[in-house]
């Protein structure tokens, strides 16, 4: 049984964002086609990515990222929130130039839209009780109980790579994580980003153990910005800005600000 690891282990706090872009893209040059402005579309219902604060102002990781992209390429920027069920249609109807709201990079969406480079990958990770984090070894989970969200790709991963473990499926991530907290399971395996939200409120109980697992074919390609198909000038501009923001530390800064419990 071998669990191939994509990245070295990193602590739960204050770790930087991995470089998700193709290293060869570092030579990407600014777009030769002038871009006067970028009209970003988003939603207002998914904290900490995009949501409204108590005063009604649109804030979040995606909001800050959109603003920094525009500042990096020195273009005017507008950000407009739409209901989630209307956001993709609004982009297709030319109500905006780019949708930064976590639209799935599925085959169906790929027929309608182009996507920027990935700016945030979403790994799977193990969570254990705090006392079990040090010295955690995934190879030692044979015969142990692992909590998962039933029907998830993370359950598929565990069944594939840890067939001798006892799988304990739950309706959702919160219930599965609570099983670890309540000693009903030895570990949880699931979406690291969602687990980080739960850990932020349960720091005394549990934490990430072991390494992050990146499996795009199972866990998805991550988060990217959707654009109308063929809008190469703006897509090229956004990709160039993302590289610059990673290289100058801005992307790491935003990640650490909005995700105090890092999920890498």
Describe this entry's structure for a reader.
- Helices cover 31% and strands 21% of the residues.
- The chain is of the alpha/beta class and 264 residues long.
- It folds into two domains: 23-28 and 35-121 and 221-258, D-Maltodextrin-Binding Protein, domain 2; 124-214, D-Maltodextrin-Binding Protein, domain 2, CATH 3.40.190.10.
- The strands form four sheets. A five-stranded mixed β-sheet has the order 10-9-11-8-12, sandwiched between helices. Strands 5-1-6 form a three-stranded parallel β-sheet, sandwiched between helices.
- The model is unreliable at 1-14 (pLDDT under 50).
Keywords, separated by commas or semicolons:
264 residues, alpha/beta, D-Maltodextrin-Binding Protein, domain 2, 2 domains, 9 helices, 31% helix, elongated
The percent of residues in helical segments reads 25-40%
Kindly provide the radius of gyration, computed on alpha-carbon positions and rounded to a whole number of angstroms: 19 Å
**Percentage of residues in DSSP E strands:** 15-25%
Level-2 CATH architecture of the largest domain = 3-Layer(aba) Sandwich
Question: Please, what is the CATH homologous superfamily of the largest domain?
Answer: Periplasmic binding protein-like II
CATH topology of the largest domain: D-Maltodextrin-Binding Protein, domain 2
User: What count of structural domains?
Assistant: 2
* Poorly predicted tracts of residues: 1-14
């Amino acid at each position: 049984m071998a669990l191939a690891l994509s990245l070295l282990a990193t602590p739960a706090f204050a770790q930087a964002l991995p470089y998700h872009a193709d290293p060869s893209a570092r030579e990407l040059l600014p777009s030769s086609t002038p871009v006067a402005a970028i009209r970003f579309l988003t939603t207002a219902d998914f904290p900490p990515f995009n949501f409204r604060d108590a005063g009604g102002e649109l804030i979040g990781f995606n909001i800050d990222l959109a603003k920094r992209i525009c500042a990096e390429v020195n273009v005017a920027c507008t950000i407009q929130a739409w209901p989630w069920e209307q956001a993709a249609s609004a982009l297709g109807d030319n109500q905006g130039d780019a949708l930064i709201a976590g639209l799935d990079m599925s085959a169906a969406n790929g027929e309608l839209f182009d996507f920027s480079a990935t700016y945030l990958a979403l790994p799977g990770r193990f969570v254990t009780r705090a006392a079990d984090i040090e010295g955690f070894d995934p190879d030692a989970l044979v015969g142990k109980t692992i909590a998962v969200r039933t029907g998830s790709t993370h359950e598929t991963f565990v069944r594939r790579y840890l067939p001798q473990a006892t799988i304990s499926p739950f309706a959702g991530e919160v219930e599965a994580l609570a099983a670890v907290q309540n000693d009903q399971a030895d570990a949880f395996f699931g979406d690291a980003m969602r687990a980080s939200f739960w850990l932020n409120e349960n720091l005394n109980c549990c934490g990430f153990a072991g390494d992050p697992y990146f499996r795009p074919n199972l866990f998805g390609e991550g988060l990217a910005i959707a654009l109308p198909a063929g809008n190469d000038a703006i897509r090229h501009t956004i990709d160039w800005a993302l590289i610059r923001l990673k290289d100058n530390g801005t992307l790491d800064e935003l990640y650490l600000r909005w995700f105090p419990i890092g999920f890498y």
